[in-house]
Amino acid sequence: MAALEITIIPEAVIKQAFEHFDADKSGTISLQELKSVLCRPTSAGIAFAEEEVQALLNKLDTNKDGNLNYAEFASGSRTGSLPGGTAFLQVFSAKMNAKEAREKVAAETAIQAIVDSLLSEYRSRAKELGIPDSVVDTVPPPSIPPTNPGSIRIFQCNILADGLADDGFLVQPILPELVIDYPALIDEVAAQRAAKGDMALLKSNHDSEASRKNHSATLDWGLRWARLRLFIAVSMPDIITFQEMDHMADAQRDLAPLGYECGYPGKKYEPAHKVFGTLKTDPQFKDAPRYLQELEKVGVAFAPKTQSNCRKFGLDTYLGEKADDDGVAIFWRRDAFALTKLDFIAIEDKKRNQGAVKVTLQRKKDGAPLIVIATHLSSGTKREDEEIRMNELTRKTYNAEGALENPSLVGLYEESVDKAPTLMCLDANSRPDQKEATTEGATVWKVLRSFPVRKDIMRSVWDSSFDEKGKTKQTDIPNTTNKMRGPLSDQPKKIGEHTYGVVDHIFFSPTLTMERHAWGPLTYASPDAALKHLLPTLEVPSDHAPVVADILMPSASE
């Protein structure tokens, strides 16, 4: 006769066990269904006699209908009335854990197959571009540890839009036909910049067919996108935020096999330029209400810059009419989070429609909510550029009627914090130690870290490196961008300008806790030291390095 002891069993295990017994899914367990399970020996060697099972049914069947409903079954499991219940349900729980372990191994095997496929795709594209295997062999796969239990991983990256990539960056020689002293070229360009030298002469001395081919190979979208997906496949972030994404259709298609979603079920990305036109060929079409309406109709977490320079320039490249506007996007792992609400924010801009995107998610394992906001502030190194960025953060945004009456980005963040743990991910185009402050001495960092209304509701993954005023706390300064335009650039004023520092940010509410940087960050002792490692490279396929951070997220019950 089997033992009749029992201990407390988790509700989830009881439900799973009930479903296992209820073979015909009628919602009740018959005598035959009880016998088919309990009279069969388990892996623990436990089996019940038929008379024991009949006695069990008689005892638990309080409504005397000859079956066990869920309440009767659960009550028996909790009170010890189920003969051998502990043993069986514990074995059942162990089986379910084993099943989950098998599913985890299968998922990891599938991801590894994708990683192997991406490595093969990367090598194949490199070969098509003429990059020798000996060069590709020097590019290590990303090394990123798994996420710890209780943490969520955020992957924030300005990918460098394909339509903006042909910008004359100083890049390492990767093709055999380009024979140059790369460190000497960097020194020469920097020296000419410092001396306000003749950039036209510099361009004529170094602008060659071989150098342009080398630049094109380094910035090739197929190569870079394979590398970016490799980063994602290896790190498996829970949340991905992109800026300058101008291949959104590719991203939605190619990240789906990795387990990512970016919108409501069944919704597919549609290019905004089909509605709003292109600066190069169409009259200005700026209409915030229409912008919000179109984005909501598409139902994908992507907020483009309409009539963008990205599409304007891309039309003159290999992309042709496939060139798209760049924008900000949010993706999430479908096995970890479900979308509950998608919102768009239209920011005031004199030239075009542009905005931010906000998603409200629910963590599947416990129902805990999470809000993610993604945006991209304007570029520029002058004081007035920082003032524009400040306005983008702090001024009211457009409502559905076209009035500037909706909350600002900081106001939206503040509202969100009161509802759920919140992330704000952005390329701010502004460093914590930004010198080009506004007339009041404010910077993007100072406003966000000090917050204009309520203190201590916004923290940063860079808090260990910078204080609230932007002063550095360590010798080796982290940076997320490290680039210099060279002789190939068609922007003479920017040739030799070294753009360096932390401009990509993940801010978060106090209910979340920074655990670690899962990759990087890139750190250098000085700007001169950073000059030896300019981006983009084959290893980091953008002029911005990704920010990969693990953040502790409380459970729904905490």
How would you characterize this protein structure?
With 558 residues, the protein is an alpha+beta fold. The protein folds into two domains: 84 residues, Recoverin, domain 1, CATH 1.10.238; 424 residues, Endonuclease/exonuclease/phosphatase (Deoxyribonuclease I, Chain A, 4-Layer Sandwich). Helices cover 35% and strands 18% of the residues. The strands form five sheets. Strands 1, 2, 3, 4, 5, 17 and 19 form a seven-stranded mixed β-sheet that branches. A hairpin with a 5-residue loop joins β9 and β10. α1 packs across α5 and α5 packs antiparallel against α10. It starts with 10 loop residues before the first helix and ends in a 6-residue tail after the last strand. The N terminus is likely disordered.
* Total beta strands: 19
CATH class of the largest domain: Alpha Beta
Number of helices: 18
Write down the domain tally: 2
Query: Using only CA atoms, what is the Rg?
Result: 29 Å
Look at the structure and give the mean pLDDT. 88
Shape: elongated
Oligomer kind: single chain
Label the CATH architecture of the largest domain. Answer: 4-Layer Sandwich
Biggest sheet details: 7 strands, mixed
Indicate the structural class: alpha+beta
Give the fraction of residues assigned to helices.
Answer: 25-40%
List keywords for this structure.
alpha+beta; 18% strand; seven-stranded mixed sheet; Deoxyribonuclease I, Chain A; disordered N terminus; 558 residues; six-stranded mixed sheet; 18 helices; Recoverin, domain 1
